[in-house]
Every structure is written in structure tokens, then in C-alpha cells.
Amino acid sequence: MMRRLALALLVVAAAAGGAFAVEPDEMLDDPGLEARAREISSGLRCLVCQNQSIDDSNAELAHDLRVLVRERLVAGDSDAAVVDYVVARYGEFVLLRPAFDARTLLLWLSAPLILGAGALTIFIAARRRAAASDPLTDDEQQRIDALLRDEEKSDGDARPASRKG
Q1: From residue 60, how far is each of 47, 94, 96, 98 by CA, in Å?
Q2: For residue 62, which of 19, 54, 76, 129 is within the disulfide window of CB 3.0 to 4.6 Å?
Q3: pTM of the full predicted structure?
Q4: CA distance linking residue 95 with residue 88, whole number of Å
Q5: CB 129 within 8 A of CB 121
Q6: CATH assignment of 2-98?
Q7: What's the average model confidence in pLDDT over 25-46?
């Protein structure tokens, strides 16, 4: 029972972790602007944490970026203009979902290529294993039987007299 309660609390804490990153003093009074800020922030990478959005991160730089996004929105910038401003300042690495273009083609295709190479490797290994376990032909089986009989005869002659028979 205690394990279930602990697990439930852990799941709730993990799900709510991002909600605590945006501090109350950062939030805008206008709910529409705040919603836009949250939408933009969810697509920007924390440069310290790297696998979290700035909305989910408690890092100082993430805080600064959240404030910057809100300042630009209050100044009247469009969502695209805010993102362009942040990208111009920090580079495309700040985008959690980079644009699909010639420069990011390898980035977008690397996961499917690696997955395909892994699947191909498994397929080839399975075929080789299946080919190695093909049943013997009658001719091959007769040759093996003959070799085993010849070996038994030669072993029988080489055995000490006490072991014969």
C-alpha cells in the first residue's frame, strides 16, 4: 500500500515539475500574453539543461530567457519575431524542434537511418543464423555417419584391452 502511495506521489511530482519552473513574478497579468509566452517557451531549449524547455527548467539562464520572451511580447512582437530574436541571439540550438531544411537534414534523418541500420543488422544476423541451421542433405548425413563409424573403429582399436568390449 505504501509503495503505491509513494509511486503515485512520485508520478504527480514528476508531472508537476515543469509547473514550478515558471515563477509567479515572471507571469504576465494578461492571460492571453501569458499563454503565448508559455507556448513560445515550450519550444525553446534550456541551454544549461539541454533536454528541457525553458518552461520546465529552474536554471538561471532559463529564467532569463523566460523573462526575455515576456518582455518581447509586452513590447508588441509577434510570436515568430520573439522566436527569431532568441534564435538570432543564441543560435538554432535553442530550438527544441529545429526547422527542417538543408542544414538540419542529417539531424532529422539520423534517427530513422540508425533505426533502419539496426533493423537491417538484425535481419541479416537472423538470416545467417537460419542458414547455419539448415538441415543436412541425405548425402551430407551419410558422409557424417561414415566418418563417425570410421572414427569409432579407429578408437576401438586404440583403446586399452581392459576397456574393450
Answers
A1: 10, 15, 18, 23
A2: 54
A3: 0.53
A4: 11
A5: no
A6: 1.10.8.640
A7: 86
